[in-house]
Model the fold of this input.
Amino acid sequence: MYRPVLRQKWDVIIDADRCKGCEICVNACPEQNLQLSKNINGLGYHYVEFNFHGKRGDCTGCNICYNVCPDYSILGVVSGEEAVNGS
Amino acid sequence: MGAEAIAEAAVDAGLEAYFGYPITPSSEIMENLALLYASHRNDKFKVYFQSASEVESINLLMGAGAAGHIAMTATSGPGLSLMAEGISYAYTSEIPLVIVNVNRGGPGLGNVAPEQSDYLFVTKSLGHGGSKAIVLAPSSIQEAMNQVRMAFELSFKFRIPVIILTDAIIIHMLESVDQDHLLPVSVDSGWSARGRSGGERHLINSIYLEPDEFRKIKVKLEEKWKAIEPLSDCFMCDDAETLFVAYGISARIAMEAATELREKGIRAGVFRPITLNPFPGKMLMDAASNSSRIIAIEMNEGQMVHDVQYWVRRDVELVPFIGGIYPDTEEVIEKCK
Amino acid sequence: MQVKQLSAVIPGAVNTYCPGCEHGLLLKFIAMALEELGVTEKAIMVGSVGCSTLAFKFLNVDYVQAPHGRAPAIMTGIKEVEPGAIVFAVQGDGDALSIGLQELIHAANRGIPITVFMYNNMVFGMTGGQMAPTTPEGMVTTTTPFGRNTKASGPPINSCELLSCLSGPSYIRRVIIAPKPIQLKDRVMYSSKEANESYRAVVSALKTQMMGGFSYVEFLGTCNVNWKMSITDSKKYAHEVSAKVFPPRLFRDRFGVDSIES
Done:
């Protein structure tokens, strides 16, 4: 019988309208989960986007991005769950 | 003594904070307040200390006023020059504060003798940008006491700085008063910055970078200013042929001269502005309408005379007393011959 | 998904700072600290002149604007008549140490329980990058196009050391708020240690005020626009130059509230 396994998943909540594309969070993230978007926001900056599966690894919910953002465009890091195929 | 009286009037009327810097001839006001503070004459008088400069004094007043409390200082010309920056900020930020200016000889270090040479400074532009304050000028000790109380009321009613323009004579002279225990004022501080306390935040500010925004503020401030009513006093001026115009201590001399001239058959009178800003121009026009001679008497080289000339639209004569010399009734009477 | 936003920040407000400037970070830390200590409703911010003037467009606390350099005097006036309020100011290095040095020293000397957060980026930022009292020798600014000449202008002023001569202040600390770029094998990574330490310094400073003491924190930040550098280069400059001229450390902690290990 198929029983889904739940594992912890993190989500970084971003207010893209405040981001100024300074890339401090991009550089500070240990797992490289943040990148600047190709699109620009109302201020004219390429805003940051989050991907749970980062270049180096999955987001660990370390909160560094929230701590270092100078514009309060990263509003918080919240935890959730995702189902993973399992046996 | 004038300084004692002003200090007692302030404390009885509900002064809450006093910050000052010593400067002759105003230091006695602060020294008297030190004693009144130590003797707990009024529980409301909770804060007193000497500041490090007049620059600090005016900013301490702005802090106390922005938090909605009654605060006052006393200074003289060189100190008032340093306060001009703060008064300009307080005008646009709409912060109430009261300054007693004891006019001494100037410009520069001058001397510590009395003059009325700060008139232009306090009435025409007390700080950059067209900043202004309500200016009250007492000519007796009782009036000085009443004006301290009035200053507290006006500063909060209109949320504007108020200057009481005295001079070294009034501060040091001895005179008896009728009413020496003034009643406390009650003021509204709902607008002040004391913390959000569960509501909207309060903004006490004078920077408005958008020209439209700033225009609205300046129009509002001008409208508020126009609502302030000027005050004046008329001494035998209804039927005066020769009208003296003088304020403060010069007005006392003018009244003495007018009385003596009446005995000699000359119909003299005195128009005394009580608020120098806003200047009681219309009242002066009325008082001067039947006079053939208008003579301004002031302890300076000629400052108020320009305002008088503007309102009566005629040539105005001047009896100046420059350099700190005491005004002389004889000299005034000589002018009338 | 929604997340609870800081009460001391105006919803949706964008701060007015250049991209990469840590000034916004300092304001955010103040908002976080006020919430952590539960004093947002009692907070009164005094604004100064410079990049910090427009803080009221971002922070949602009571705000009284001060003339250039006079914030410590206005804070003193407010705290004397409203002793229950938490009164703080963010001043630049020009505001605090040039025109405002007298007000700062006398307020510090009195030891009145207020808090000064000094953002030191070694230039006058808002006005276009002129020399400041903290500009190091030889640094090029718009008013020292050939580098600061200490013969004419004297050396830079170390404010924490200066205030340490007075017995009034209860908490004096200098921290670097600019993240340190670390060279990894394949990329440059920014450290988050500076952000954490700066946040703890903000909390310690406000705690000191709540316990009745005067607190002063100097933050070594960057101004990549006026330093004419890229954002990453400005972070390097802050760690290589600022930190040498202004060594970050704890100077005084009368109530033992400092919680930074280094």
Observations:
- Residues 91 and 276 of chain B are 17 Å apart (CA to CA).
